[in-house]
Amino acid sequence: MLFSDHPRTHYRNAPAHEVICQLRFPSILTINTVEPADFQEAIRAEFPQYARRQDAAPPRITGLGSPNPKVEQQPPVTNHNFVSEDNQWKLNLTKDFIALSTLHYPGWEEFARQLDKPLAAFIRLYKPAYFQRVGLRYVNAFSRRFLGLEGTPWSDLIQPAFLGVMAEPDVDEAKIGSCSLNVSMALEDNCHMKVHAGPGLLGGGKKDPEVKFILDGDFSTAGKHNPDAVPEKL
Length: 234
Hints:
The protein contains 4 helices and 11 strands; from the N terminus they run βααββββββαββββα. With 234 residues, it is of the alpha+beta class.
């Protein structure tokens, strides 16, 4: 039963690799053109490091259905990055979204506490009309080496629903080049879930060549969410 109730458990060797909360809002153009000095001052104690980068925006296609459709390049999007002193927490602010991410997830209560102050400052300073999408993403990576389980097949460790053909007893895991599961489904309360599951390499294997089992879950709700209602939604 994938959706049965399970007691909340804190693992000594937690599999969470990265956790991200992103809130999208109708574009606020001043974020792209004016330095967010007041916002930085409000969060500088918790996020003292700052960097800015220019992200390429996807092109816009106009004239679809006409004899001469055109591809129009869009101006780059300014992405303001605010990072904690220990480099474990990062806050991103663009004209379309604000996001908090961490590579050291301590649990929901601490994550929510870290989000509370910058989100309140953003709402106070930029006054978004509403949030279009509220999303939480959990990227879990199970390492057999880290858990002392090297040599143990994934079929002994992961529920069959996430394994595909690797769950079959006559399939040799060592012979599989790739095997993944991708699910998109509606949940209760107008929420949505997207899950990717399967063996893979973190960061393309550039720093760590060990194949891990990746369980990447993206949970979101779309619509017009009043800023005051966001904590309850999360």
